[in-house]
Amino acid sequence: MNNLIENTVEFVKEKLKGAEAGHDWYHIERVWKLSKKIAETENCNLEVVELAALLHDIADPKFHNGDETLALEVSRQFLERQYAAEDIIENVLFIIKNISFKNRAEAPENLPVELKIVQDADRIDAIGAIGIARTFNFGGFKNNLMYDPEIKPKLNMSKQEYKKSNGTTINHFYEKLLLLKDLMNTQKGKEIAADRHDFMLQFLDQFYKEWNVS
Question: What's the rounded Cα separation, in Å, for the pair 36 and 12?
């Protein structure tokens, strides 16, 4: 591991102490590992991939009053202190700016492979058993209802609607999680996502059986 990556790991660990459990260092670590796994199958700049994976949630807008510029500022300041090359900084910031699900309609065409890799890794960590655990943890953090049969999922929400949404945790599966499998960019990402997607479908099936005491 080079010094820049090592220093970034230490910086992120310190910065995210006490963060909500679905967006803490362990989330970052999983995305980092997944990114490296996917990168093995792609022709890419691995340093950009690793740095973007490590910094992508350094200041998640959900926990900073919706501010989408803070993560870019924090990341640039950190990378400049590390004397990272300007082209590396620009590429990492581009990924941080365009990675999120809610910003997908605003993302430019012909995305660089490094963004595709980190985006897939981040989305994979949002599905499967880990995704289910993170979703219910965040729902509890927001004090959202777990499920209400009377409240239907809101499909095709705009970015602003999505940011303001306080729907049920189960609805979040239909509003985001079950859509992610078909949004994967890389072949490796698609393979990993397919297995996790099936697990979520099994979970939902069991959830409804137990909810309805069938």
Answer: 17
Burial of 168 (0-12, 13-18, 19+ CB in 10 A): buried
**In the chain, which residues have pLDDT < 70?**
1, 61-67, 103, 105, 157-166
Contact present, 24 and 16 (Cβ < 8 Å): yes
Distance of alpha carbon 24 from alpha carbon 31, whole angstroms: 11
Contact predicate 167/175, CB 8 Å: yes
Q: Which residue has the tokens 């500022």?
A: 73
In eight-state DSSP terms, residue 62 is G
Q: CB–CB of 140/153 below 8 Å?
A: no
DSSP string, 111-155: --HHHHHHHHHHHHTTSHHHHHHHHHHHHHHTT--S--TTS----
